Structure prediction request, 325 residues.
Amino acid sequence: MGVRAEQSSTTLIGRMRDHLDDRDVSENVQKAWLYWARCLLLFHDDRSPQSLQLEDIEAFLEHLDASRRLTPASRRQALMAIECLLSDVVGIEVPGLPEMVARCRDSLRPVVLSPAQVQQLLSHLRGADWLMASLVYGAGLRLKECVRLRVRDLETDRIVVRDSTGRFSRESVLPQRVREPLREHLEEIKLQHIRELADGLGSVSLPARIKTVLATSRSWAWQFLFPGPYVATRSGTGPDRHRGHIPDRQLASVLEKAGRDAGIDQTVTANTLRNSFATHLIQRGVAVADVERLLGIKRPAASHGEHPISPLNIPESPADLLATH
Prediction:
C-alpha cells in the first residue's frame, strides 16, 4: 500500500471510529467493525474506496469465506461494517449493498431468552452484577447506556437514558423489583463517595460538553451508578484523577458467564436481554411503537419534536413478572 493510500485508510478508520462513538456502539462491536473495515481497505488497497462497487464487496467476502470460513454471524458483522464505512463515512451509495445487508440480517434471527431463562440467568448473579443485568433486561438498556448511568438519571418510576454527550435520549421503566436493592446500592456508593471526598477525591469524568468544574465533578448527582476505577486526568486543569464508570467489558463478561452458569446454549449479551425485553413486552400486547420508543429506536417518519413517554404509557417492566429474586 502506498503512503497516500495508507494515510487515506488511516483517516477513514479514524472517522469511522468517531462515527461509531457518536452512535454509542459498544467497544466490542467497534473493534470488530473497525477490523473488518481495515480488512476491506487492505484487500482493495489499489482502489479508491469511493470507486468500490457491489462486485468488489462480493469478491472481498468470497476471499474471507475461502480463507477464514466465515460463520453467518461474522459475515453479517463484516457486511454491516462495510455498509457503515461506505455509506456513513465515505458517503457513497453502493447499489445492491443495502439489500445484501438486509438479506443477511434477516437470515439471522436475534437471540431471545424465555422469561424462565432470564430468571435462571439472574439467579446466578448477586449485588451490582444482578442490578446491572436486571436493568438491562428490565429497562431495555444498551450495554453502554447501563454502565454510564448516573445518580441523576434515576427517578421514582423511570430511568432517564442519555446519549454519550449527556443529553436526554429517552425515558424507560424502572423495574419495581430493583428499587429496594437499588436504594441499598445507592447508600453504599454514597458512603464510599463521602469517604473519598474526605480524602480529597470523589471527582468523576463528565461528558465532553460539560465544563469540568470541581464542584460539578464531585457532586453526588453526577456520580456513576456503577463506579469504575480512577483514571488520570488528561487536561491540566481540575483534579489529578477522576473516577470512570465500570468498564464495558466487565459487564459483558458478567452476562456471558451468567449465561454459561445458567446452562443457556447461546452466548448471552446485553443485546440478548434487550431483545428479550422487547419481545416479552410485545407478547403482552404492548404496542410496537411504544416498545420502540422505550428502546430508543427512531423511525425515519418519527417527528423530532416527539415528547417523552408519559407515565400512563410506560408499561410494567417484564422483570417485575419474573419470580422473586
User: Anything to note?
Assistant: Strands lie at 158-162, 168-173, 227-232, 241-245. The radius of gyration is 22 Å. The mean pLDDT is 87.
